[in-house]
Here is the input.
Amino acid sequence: MSGALTFSGDGVVTGNTYDKYGSTNPLVRRMMSGFQATLGELMTLAAPGSLLDVGCGEGVLVHRWASEMPDTRIVGIDLDEPSIQAGWAQRQAPNLEYRVMRAENLPFADDEFDLASAIEVLEHVPDPEHTLSEMARCARSHLLVSVPREPLWRMLNMARGAYLPVLGNTPGHLNHWSKRSFVALLSRYGTVAQVRSPFPWTMLLVRL
Here is the structure.
């Protein structure tokens, strides 16, 4: 999955313009169906009364969650980038708030949210351990996180001839984890309650 890269005002790669959630490609649709089904199952298990989503992008997931959980306070944060804020303008809900900010040093109180999530985000941040520490500080019950599964992700990119000069590494991906290494990382912040592997990702629900 690839597209034209997008950048924040300070030059950080924020993602790409490929709409994986709205793709008509049958293979992408199948992968995303498994991804979203697994994510929904873990969100149901956590059943948060309030939720902070770090790196919410154009708001596709937070808007869906706001519709599915109308009594849940949801705050989505991301960088200042035109396509991101354009998505926010199109995806509004009474229980959904967007804020422009970086993932480091979150300006929220300790235990302000039941759950903090980072869905396809931690591979992009310069210091994932610090970001996770901040998320764990702001959440009192759960973390819900997902990342591309390595080395599978790179192998799939190379198999389709993408990003060959950088051995299949997607631009903007600064961090890389196998399922085992990602579980080990998240175990520092709480008890890993659920480990799921929707192809080709790793998704964890962590009890704080």
